[in-house]
Amino acid sequence: MGWWTERVVPRITDKACGTQEIAELRKQACAGLHGRVLEVGFGSGHNLSHLPAEVESVSAVEPADAGWALSEKRRQASPVPVRRTGQDGQALTESDASFDSALVTFSLCTIPDPARALAEVRRVLRPGGRLHFLEHGLAPDPGVATWQHRLDPVQRRLAGGCHLSRDIPALVAASGLEVEAVDAAYLPGPWISRPWGYGYLGTAGRRD
Ligand SMILES: C[S@@+](CC[C@H](N)C(=O)[O-])C[C@H]1O[C@@H](n2cnc3c(N)ncnc32)[C@H](O)[C@@H]1O
Fold first, then answer.
1. CA–centroid distance, residue 110 to ligand 1 (Å)
2. Which of 26, 40, 62, 74 is the pocket-test mutation for ligand 1 (most atoms within 8 Å of CB)?
3. Residue ranges in the chain whose pLDDT is less than 50
4. CB-count exposure of residue 77 (10 Å: 0-12, 13-18, 19+)
5. What is the pTM of this model?
């Protein structure tokens, strides 16, 4: 990981993903989480203040030390114990079927192999457990999608590996998790921001 991705991107992300509009969506994404929760791509801990009272603990998987350091105040303010249990969502150290819920927000765009990460999430969720996701990705409008593919190489370089054009619900479904609900819409912002702003909010369950 270069210094830009390790030191600068986490700070930019902390600000860009810390808006009030996104906080509203985080609250919806976190509703229903309970028990032992795995969060993949923990970042600077923006979801902590939205966790329901039924959450017992959070296992945080985050590669960027700077992101983890930025989360310190939020972790201290959280009534829920948070432990950094890994640095790569593609190779979790957790045992099979050991979590009640999993959470991933704005990270499936960045994890190099999201299919592997989702397979890992499925493995560590107990049967009946549920992944909650809030992500950005491929827009349905061909014009916007074309720009997303065009901008992807630059976005990847500037934003720590972030892709604009990943089809998040398709990736989740391909992992064997059953997609139960997805709301998809442009996130608040000017028209020009559309390639960055097609959002998916949903849940997917492990059936067996
Ligand atoms: C745009 S940030 C989102 C952070 C946070 N989830 C949020 O909603 O604010 C993307 C996050 O994915 C993390 N990430 C990148 N590669 C990863 C991997 N292989 N496993 C887990 N997280 C990863 C980055 O370090 C970064 O914290």
1. 6
2. 62
3. none
4. exposed
5. 0.97
